[in-house]
Predict the 3D structure of the following.
Amino acid sequence: MNHHNRSACSIDITLNGQSLALLDASGGVIVRYPVSSALNGVGAQDGSGCTPGGEHYIRAMIGSGLPANTVFRARRPTGEIYSPALAASHPGRDWILSRILWLCGLEPGKNRGAGVDTFRRFIYIHGTPDTEPMGLARSHGCVRMRNADVIELFDCARPGMPVTIR
């Protein structure tokens, strides 16, 4: 899947369909993945726990080359690898695993700037435990993916890649 021109690709996330598509330059779907976005729905307000809509881009990519199920806290690998035993010892932890694609909004007042800033809200596309359901809105605002899927997407993505959330 790495043979296509990454610079021409973009990501399209459909919240009502709970899916993410990697698109080619003409808007054709290269691959589609199930995702899980915010339980609280669409919104950009600080502290809302919502997934922001609109035009974004990938501002930072974190986790290149790390093993699947690598655990991140504050965007740094903890040295842990996710397992059911680790999960049992940390109930209620919002697991961020494998890879992080940190998003930045492009629309001032909607998803960029004071009170609504996607980047400052730490909104990512990231891996989640394989026990978490996909296709159901369950996150705290981020877009969660299966670990194998987020690693595959990460390998096709690049900083600056356009991301639309609708």
